[in-house]
Amino acid sequence: MTAWRRTGASPALKGPLAEIERALAAGRADAALAQASAWHQKDPGDVLALIGLGDALEAKHNLETAARVYGSNHRSVSGPRRLPPVRR
């Protein structure tokens, strides 16, 4: 099944999250995790960084940590929160 996309439409994702998702789609989970981890360390309060990190962790089959990352999204409204180091 191919995805429908309006001609001339801009991509739904842009920036670092788009780069992470492209790496994951290309089977480069290690590169995606490295990029997502660096982004999160640089800007721990960025919700999109948390989504990228969670997606990369899922691709690496680190589901427990991915669930913690996704769960921290709702807490990020109250300010930046650093997560424990990611096991690779």
Explain this structure to me?
With 88 residues, this protein is mostly helical. The chain has a single domain (15-77), classed as Serine Threonine Protein Phosphatase 5, Tetratricopeptide repeat (Alpha Horseshoe). Helix content is 55%, strand content 0%. It has helices at 15-25, 29-42, 47-59, 63-72. Helix 1 (15-25) packs antiparallel against helix 2 and helix 3 runs antiparallel to helix 4 (63-72). It starts with 14 loop residues before the first helix and ends in a 16-residue tail after the last helix. The model has no long low-confidence stretch (mean pLDDT 84).
Short overview:
This protein is mainly alpha-helical. The protein is 55% helix and 0% strand.
